[in-house]
Amino acid sequence: MVKKSLAFYRLSQEADCDLNSIFEYSEIEYGTDQAVNYLVEIEKLLDDLIHHPFSGKKRDEIKKGLFSFPKGEHIIFYRIMTDHIRVVRVLHGSRDIPSHFK
């Protein structure tokens, strides 16, 4: 397997909704500054995954071709495409993860 950098990442509609929900919850619980900081940290992690896409854990037991990488209490699920990373979901680690991929 050749290690390569990819050009960009793209969020699925579900991942975009997940991030909006994370922001809304974080803003209520921890304040706007903390909510913004957490999303910035997630964005930095996604930028790192562009350069090291295979650093995540293979999650074929959930869905073939799926990778994951933890960030705080959340897990970022993604697929490696030809020229980008497709972020599929961003879920809290305590959730029933497999049920979100059926």
Key descriptive features of the protein:
YaeB-like fold, single chain, 2 helices, alpha+beta, 27% strand, globular, five-stranded mixed β-sheet, 102 residues
What does this structure look like?
This protein is α+β, with helices and mostly antiparallel strands. It has a single domain, classed as RelE-like (YaeB-like fold, 2-Layer Sandwich). 37% of the residues lie in helices and 27% in strands. The chain has 2 helices and 5 strands; from the N terminus they run βααββββ. The protein has a 5-stranded mixed β-sheet with strand order 1-5-4-3-2. A hairpin with a 2-residue loop joins strand 3 and strand 4. Helix 1 runs antiparallel to helix 2. The longest helix has 20 residues. The termini are far apart. The model has no long low-confidence stretch (mean pLDDT 93).
Gist of the model:
It contains 2 helices and 5 strands, in the order βααββββ. It has one domain: RelE-like (YaeB-like fold, 2-Layer Sandwich). Helices cover 37% and strands 27% of the residues.
Question: What's the gyration radius in Å?
Answer: 14 Å
Spell the H/E element sequence: EHHEEEE
- Output the CATH class name: Alpha Beta
Average pLDDT, rounded to a whole number, is 93
Number of strands: 5
How many domains in all?
A: 1
Largest β sheet strand count, sense and barrel closure: 5 strands, mixed
Specify the number of helices: 2
- Main sheet strand line-up: 1-5-4-3-2
Could you list the spans in which at least 5 consecutive residues all have pLDDT below 50?
Answer: none
CATH architecture title: 2-Layer Sandwich
Query: Which of globular, elongated, flat, extended, rod-shaped describes the shape?
Result: globular
Report strand %.
25-35%
CATH topology: YaeB-like fold
- For the terminal residues, how far apart are their CA atoms? 28 Å
